[in-house]
Fold this sequence. Notes:
Elements: H1 2-40, H2 45-70, H3 76-87, H4 91-111
Amino acid sequence: MLAQDTSEELAALRRLRVVSLLEGTTLLVLLLVAVPLKHLAGLPMATKIMGPIHGLAFMTYVWMLLNTVAGSEWPSRQKLQMVIAAMIPFGAFVNERILARRQTALAAGIQG
């Protein structure tokens, strides 16, 4: 039973890491591509397209993060840190590193 719980947590961490990277990447594209295209090239359609894509990625990321940490046995301080980092621009990349370390530790525990 414990191995199944651990494998489920590993799968959740993998999914959350992917969504975290997606959210951070869409923010970069929005800020480094779409906004300059809007203001420098006169193409407001760039932000009209990329803005909602990033918004959806952000909402998905926050929803998955809250679901993942709510049912976990992580320290409360780390849960709070991750939720706060999610609200800070590029915090998704910080959280992805935290998730990667936790994933590595869990995987080592299964193998060891």
